[in-house]
Amino acid sequence: MLLTEEVEVNVGRNLVYYENLGYEIPKYLNCKNELKVKKGTKIIVKVSDLKVDSISNVEVKCDYCENIYTITYKSYNKSKKEIINKDCCKHCGKFKRRESNLLKYGEISHMKTEKYKNMFSKKYKNIKEEFIKRGYELVSKEYVHSSQKLDFICDKHIDKGIQTISWTHFNRGYGCKYCGYERVSKKMKGENNVNWNGGISSLSHYLRNFIDDWKITL
Hints:
Blueprint: E1 6-10, H1 15-20, E2 28-29, E3 35-36, E4 42-46, E5 57-61, E6 68-72, H2 73-79, H3 93-104, H4 114-133, E7 136-138, E8 149-154, E9 163-166, H5 167-171, H6 177-187, H7 202-217
Antiparallel strand pairs: 1-4, 2-3, 5-6, 7-8, 8-9
């Protein structure tokens, strides 16, 4: 429920708009004897007289928890265009969505409708094929959204059991963490290691053998 009845607004570019509604705007005579409105002039107007896209803040009472919250008048008007003509705070938005979905789809979530079930069923098959291409067995039996944790088993690390990854991360190249450890370990060996200090090169082998031979001849 909208609680605010009046708000203070900056006249700015809405001078003609508010004058046409009958509001008196304070003016002054400039050096050319012209009536002008001082920059930053503010007036008190009825909330009902605000433009629908006004960003003035208004107080609203949540129809679900009865808490009072503040939003812009523009956001308030946008919420009134929804199926359920109720006001809700950010904490109760889920309740309003459930009511809307029940009216629109007959389900509390549009994800449970046959349309989305079929869509996700096809998506699941594609995802399963992508896991197989990477050498993984997809254990999860359904796909709901890209952030969902999907269970899988790596063919190279079956002994490590079930691992989890989201479809989003999978698409970015992430996968079996143990395969990742092995790749990093391989890259860090020898000359690729940050602590590499020469090691035993072919030249070192030659010099060592030469010195050993020289020691024997002595």
